[in-house]
Amino acid sequence: MNDRGPGLKKGPVTVDELTARISALFLQDPLLQSAVVRGEVAELKKHSSGHVYFTLVGEGSRISCALFKNYVPYVPKWPMSGDEVLAEGSVSLYAPRGSYQLIVRRMTPIGRGAAERARLELELRLEKEGIFDPRLKRPLPPYPQKVAVVTSPTGAALRDVLAVAGSRLPSCELVIVPVQVQGYEAPDEIAAGLAAAAKVKDAECVMLVRGGGSRDDLTPFDDERVVRAVRSCPLPVITGVGHEIDETLSDKAADARAPTPSAAAERLFPDRSSLLAGLSQKRRILSSLIESDLNSFGKDLASRLEKARRALDGNITTCESALGLSASKLGASADRALFAGAERLAALGASLNSLSPLKVFD
């Protein structure tokens, strides 16, 4: 019995023959040729050719979509990742990849998707708990000597951090804590990685970084486990996740946030050459201030010494005058005393002379 269906010969078939048969089945199904699909937009990319590629996500499945440039002008409002849309088009087989996709002719946003709504609900709940309270944010070390880096060991983010740190502050030691930053196991690994980073001996700060990707690739950094691990880390945490336009809940919980891994490294590691130049300038300013203070002190000291000398000279002159006056007074007193003594002595001599026996016999 031939159960291959019409159009397939007995015996082996080529890949091209099987692909053509599958494609024909798609073309023969009216539902697949005029499908209206509801789903959440993910990984939306506008190609330089003018075509737009994205993925529609359901609860447990997804389908690749292509919107060719001639239909682009008819999109009333471009959705963002997580938005729910109605996409009208036909399902076709893309033979070079052996995959099927929805060729979209019309797309209409209808609101936020379930994933985005869940993210917003989580954000509001964590905000009420105070997880994002700016008063909890701690300052980064001004001149870190040891930093733990939580990231993929093979990603571009790590290379960027190493390059920036090596050029700006090569004296800082980096300890890499390898984790998955994408996929189902990523949230648990990142949370465990943050806990491990906090135990690195003498570490002063933790970097949590991931390179660019689609908004869906950053989903682990919106996971509640990761957000709480960031906030509860005993060391200051700086994040650099995705592109400049991306902001995750982990970014909001971190002590500091930068738009990219490179920017996070530039913020954390001061530029050694700029630092040395700044120190040199401050040294020159300090030397100038010290020299100015010394000159001012010298002039003040000279002025005080001159005043002291003049005061001393005045005191000496005053003392000399007083001493001369005292000497004159002393001399006059001595003369008067001598004169008085001489007069008294003369009187005594006269008295004695009058009582002399020789005077009697005369």
Short précis:
The model has no long low-confidence stretch (mean pLDDT about 85).
Keywords:
5-stranded mixed barrel, 47% helix, OB fold (Dihydrolipoamide Acetyltransferase, E2P), 5-stranded parallel beta sheet, 10 helices, single chain, rod-shaped, 362 residues, Rossmann fold, alpha/beta
Describe what you observe in this structure.
Helix 5 (186-198) runs parallel beside helix 6. The termini are far apart. The chain has 362 residues and is of the alpha/beta class. Helix content is 47%, strand content 21%. It folds into two domains: 15-112, OB fold (Dihydrolipoamide Acetyltransferase, E2P); 117-273, Rossmann fold, CATH 3.40.50. Strands 1-2-3-5-4 form a five-stranded mixed barrel. Strands 7-6-8-9-10 form a five-stranded parallel sheet, with helices on both faces. It has helices at residues 15-28, 30-33, 114-129, 156-168, 186-198, 224-232, 249-253, 261-268, 272-354, 357-361; strands at 35-46, 52-57, 62-67, 83-94, 99-112, 146-151, 173-178, 205-210, 237-241, 256-258.
Oligomer: single chain
CATH class of the largest domain: Alpha Beta
CATH architecture of the largest domain: 3-Layer(aba) Sandwich
Structural class: alpha/beta
**How many E-type strands?**
10
Strand order of the largest sheet: 1-2-3-5-4
Largest sheet: 5 strands, mixed, barrel
Estimated share of beta-strand residues: 15-25%
Total helical elements: 10
Helical amount: 40-55%
Described by the principal axes of the CA atoms, the overall outline is rod-shaped
Low-confidence stretches: none
CATH superfamily of the largest domain: Hypothetical protein af1403, domain 2
N- and C-termini, Cα separation: 203 Å
Using only C-alpha atoms, the radius of gyration works out to 49 Å
